[in-house]
Write a structure and sequence with these properties.
With 339 residues, the protein is α+β, with helices and mostly antiparallel strands. The chain contains 13 helices and four strands. Strands 1, 2, 3 and 4 form a four-stranded antiparallel sheet that branches. Strand 2 and strand 3 form a beta hairpin.
């Protein structure tokens, strides 16, 4: 009797636990199951339960499937779950597919998932890419956020002009995965503007026909291998910046002047050095003359001792020297009087 009561109690507890589990399951999944079936996008009850075990949020999958079904698109829960588990934003993917379908843009589920994963860390979404494909956007060139408002280019006549362009682009979904970004578009357009202005014979040509810049840039195919297709390049502003040719010539003339001054200073220094050298040589020669004159008395004394010079000869020598000194003195006085 006791054993029967124990069995009945255990059976009752097991029944209550089973009812509790069933109640929890119904509370969590019955609403989603009814919602999906009522929307014409049914999902099996077992599949909803297994999503929990696969760490997938059932509400996200069901809502995404309902959104696609209401737009006339049918995607299985397995495909939706696969992208969710890959870390993608399945809601944006479905919304992008619906927008592309309504706009008549060819975009399949796999490509949309690839674009979503590619833009995961860029701050952009696949939905934004599709919207840009539907409604083109305008990119400023150069980018004002970089602190540059205009591109400066120099024509062949040496006059620099400032150019600001606006580029209208549309997302190219076929090249979006692996395609270059907006920064590449801006860089290529800027390069094309510099090349176009640089090939102009005069800055006046650029000012008169700014559309020639956009034509030349478009002909270069600057949107190749990028995630965008360029619809138009519009020159928003063109103005004269500076006479670069004249400034360069002025700077070159100043540099040439400094070089000439340096060479002249070198020549002056060489002349001063040579002058000093000649003065030193003059002093050296004067020292030799003084030295030679100092030897004259010794030579006279030696001539007296050897008998080669007599008293009368010496007296004549003294007379000649005195006469020479007198003449030099008279000449010096005459020169002073003339001055």
């Amino acid at each position: 009797m006791v054993a029967l009561n124990t069995f009945s109690l255990a059976l009752g507890i097991a029944g209550m636990v089973a009812l509790l589990i069933v109640g929890v399951v119904l509370a969590n999944f019955l609403g989603l199951w009814i919602q999906a079936r009522a929307a014409g996008a049914p999902v099996s009850f077992i599949n909803l339960i297994m999503m929990r075990f696969r760490k997938v949020h059932p509400g996200t999958i069901v809502n995404s499937r309902i959104t696609a079904a209401k737009a006339g698109l049918d995607y299985s829960t397995d495909r939706l779950e696969a992208h969710y588990l890959a870390g993608g934003d399945i809601i944006n993917v479905v919304l992008a597919l619906v927008a592309a379908d309504k706009a008549g843009i060819a975009l399949n589920f796999d490509k949309a998932c690839a674009i979503d994963l590619a833009t995961k860390d860029t701050g952009k979404t696949v939905l934004e890419a599709v919207r840009t494909s539907i409604n083109p956007k305008v990119i400023d060139c150069p980018n004002p956020s970089a602190g540059i408002t205009k591109i400066t280019a120099v024509a062949k006549d040496g006059i620099a002009v400032n150019v600001r362009a606006r580029v209208t682009v549309r997302t190219n979904l076929d090249r979006f995965v692996g395609g270059a970004t907006e920064e590449t578009i801006i860089a290529r357009v800027g390069e094309g503007i510099v090349t176009s202005v640089g090939s102009a014979a005069s800055y006046k040509t650029v000012l008169e026909n700014p559309d020639s810049i956009s034509r030349l840039v478009l002909e270069k195919g600057v949107d190749a291998a990028t995630a965008f297709s360029i619809l138009s390049i519009d020159i928003a502003d063109v103005d004269v910046a500076d006479n670069v040719g004249a400034r360069l010539q002025t700077e070159q003339a100043e540099a040439d002047k400094q070089v000439a001054q340096a060479k002249a200073e070198m020549r002056r220094a060489a002349a001063v050095a040579q002058e000093q050298e000649m003065a030193a040589r003059t002093q050296e020669m004067r020292a030799k003359v003084v030295e030679a004159e100092a030897m004259v008395p010794t030579a006279i004394a030696e001539a007296f001792r050897s008998g080669n010079l007599g008293v009368m000869d010496y007296a004549k020598y003294e007379n000649v020297m005195a006469d020479t000194k007198m003449r030099d003195s008279i000449g010096g006085e005459n020169q002073s009087t003339e001055k």
